[in-house]
Amino acid sequence: MKKVFYIIIVIFILAQFLSPKLPETSFSNPDDLIINNPEMNANVQDILRNSCYDCHSNETGYPWYSYISPISFLISRDTKLGREELNFSEWETLSKIERAGVIDDITDEVSEGEMPMSIYTLIHRDAGLNDQDKEILINWFENYADSLFE
Q1: Residue 85 and residue 62: Cα distance in Å, rounded?
Q2: pLDDT tens string for the chain (150 positions)?
Q3: Is residue 67 within 8 Å of 95, Cβ to Cβ?
Q4: What is the pTM of this model?
């Protein structure tokens, strides 16, 4: 039993040298959704930054455990996939049609409780969306979508 324990410890230590490179963080994002929508109220901004931006923007905040394997692999993968699916830091690069489609996806996933992901809110308890937060977010995006084609 001792040997198994030592083997696990050695594997854990070696895994630290194999950690993936986490996606880069940037706080200079001229195409960002929030920056380009000054009429967005602070409540919506707070919800987006608190519940969405770690995975869906270039402004990811990596906590200390993000650098420890095997957790780093999961965080790296989820951040890359989140940015590929939707990156608020690149919002202005989308056409109006693309934005409308993304907004439809956002409102569906938020209303159905699929976002933020439960594995994320398990650790980041304050990132969960209550019914009021969902309503605020959905209403803002629906109004924004309506304004796209006025």
Answers
A1: 19
A2: 788 877 777 767 766 777 778 899 899 999 999 999 999 999 999 999 999 999 999 999 999 988 988 889 999 999 999 999 999 999 999 999 999 999 999 999 999 999 998 888 888 889 999 999 999 999 999 999 999 887
A3: no
A4: 0.84
